[in-house]
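User: what does the whole thing look like in 3D?
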Amino acid sequence: MQALTNRVKVVERKPMSLWERLYIPAILKGMAITFSHIFKKKPTINYPEKKRPFSPVFRGLQILNRDEEGRENCTACGLCAVACPAEAITMEAAERAPGEEHLYREEKYAAKYEINMLRCIFCGLCEEACPKDAIYLSETFTPADYQRKQFIYNKTDLLIPHPQEDPEAYKKALGNRAKNQTVN
Amino acid sequence: MAEEVKKETPAAFKVTIDNITIDVAPGTTILNAARSIGGDVAPPAMCYYSKLEGSGGKCRTCLVEVAAGSTADPRPMPKLVASCRTTVMDGMIVKNITSEKVTDARNGVVEFLLINHPLDCPICDQAGECHLQDLGYEHGKEGTRYQFARRTFKREDIGPYIQLHMTRCILCYRCTYVADQITNKRVHGIVDRGDHAAISTYISRAVDNDFSGNMIDVCPVGALTDRTFRFKNRVWFTKPVDAHRDCENPECCGKATLWLRGEEVFRVTARKDQWGEVQSFDGKPGWICNTCRFDKKETKDWTIEGQTLVARHSVIGANKYKKLEMPAETIKEVMNGRDPKLMMNIHNVSEVNNPNIQLSEIEGPAHSEDFNRSAEHVAGEGESTQWGMKK
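Assistant: Here's the predicted 3D structure for the full assembly of 575 residues, as structure tokens:
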């Protein structure tokens, strides 16, 4: 039969020679390769003691952002949900009542906001669509869990810590890539 | 003295718009002639409304270039003309999208319209069906050159159903024509002049006429919005269906578009045609009364005819599937008659679209207490066993 490519390697099926039948040389050759690795640099990283740095374009778990005063940026405009190719985002809006000005940035806010992490494909289109810098993909990934229902992330799971009450956690959650100013 | 030959007016005028020649009746405006061609040739209009007499001539977005006035006088018109107010002449040659001058002028007009517009589209309920949004998308610049303080107004409730955001208004006067021509008692209009001009009611008198809701439909921007729909949902997450009912009001056409979310009717509007205007039925504009618009918010009040056709480019059509054919379920057959075990029912876990919170039944916009109250309510309820699932 004519070979389709020139990379075809015909398998030889002739009987083994005496040297091959001895096995010992082949074993020694294999062990030499094994032991040589002891002196080479170890590529394994001992997770979770040591962590690999993420790539600068890594897209991880979503975070709902707050402004410097700790007010939620999200106005439930629905652009993230309509941009989402996996249809993972759902929300319900409410009007800001008098006395809630310190909680929400604008007169409308997301009373309910959910991301179904089982559906999310971390494409980052929600971040791109957001006109208020309210959602962005952070530098951590979604933690594993035993139950599916834990993957329906609501606002308590997604909101960034308060920048004035817990500035350290806020900074950590913000990461290095977050834009420094919020867009009005 | 040379005898002037007075020709009779021909029955139809030949007019060429963007190299397309059509015959229209004398007295037709350029805009309507262009609309009869359709497509991109029709200039955009923010203030002209074919169903409202006297409308037009205010926003200047429909400017076109007249390259030849008529066969008798083929000189071009010196300036761009508002096509909604200029009638055609026989042999007129009009340039709309083929003219660079027009595009340039239109970009300028959009920039002017946006000078005082707040660009709060993420909050505005009109977003998604806003004509200014479409216009800005096609002709607008990304930034603004305006550096002064924008004029701002306080939000105002005119009547129990309509909310006025004067900051968003572009002063097209359409709603005042509605008040003049459709309702029998006009209680609102434009007060003050120039930069201070504002739509208002006479000393905050409520607009309570039976057809006042139609000014929401004619408003090209989000200045007049439905208070019963305020912040309930984004228009593109609601599903528009055509429906009708026998309205007791003889003036009301009873044909409307319902904007549904599941079984809930979030909003009722008049049916719109391809130009964003109220559709005509039997030659009469299909205005609907306030009872149909604001009070009949249950599907059982209406006879649903089917899904409304949404323009392809519109965001309202996003994630809506006109024809969804579900494949036949074969798992049960394969598993010897055993039902598949569902790992999770999203309705048991999700707090959004909670069946105990009927947003359509709340009169105005929802507030935090609406959601908190029902959260307690839900906690006391038993688990849903619709899918035979345990939480």
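In plain terms: Chain B has four domains: 13-103, 131-143+151-229, 235-317, 331-378. Residues 378-391 of chain B have pLDDT under 50 and may be disordered.
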